[in-house]
Amino acid sequence: MAEHGTRSRYTYELCRCTECVFANATYLRRYRAGDVNREREEARRQSELNTACALYLRVNHPRVYKRIKQRIENA
Ligand SMILES: [Zn+2]
Fold first, then answer.
1. DSSP code of 34?
2. CA of 32 relative to ligand 1 center, distance in Å
3. Structurally, how many domains does the chain consist of?
4. What's the confidence (pLDDT) of residue 1?
5. How far, in Å, from the CA of 15 to the mean position of ligand 1?
6. CA–CA separation, 64 vs 22, rounded Å?
7. What pLDDT was estimated at residue 44?
């Protein structure tokens, strides 16, 4: 179950406590201002960049790629 004060709790578990109502209102304000879509678009671009960089490394510097990958997997 999601924490109180989250939109998830408000939306999926229909909690209407003050914290959840506030979290939902905050989200809707950000959504209307276009912030949510801007953040999604930024995340999509960042993900595309990460994929391109990983591919470049894997092809051109396989040992470096392998070392980075191991470090992430062991974190
Ligand atoms: Zn709540």
1. T
2. 22
3. 2
4. 84
5. 5
6. 46
7. 97
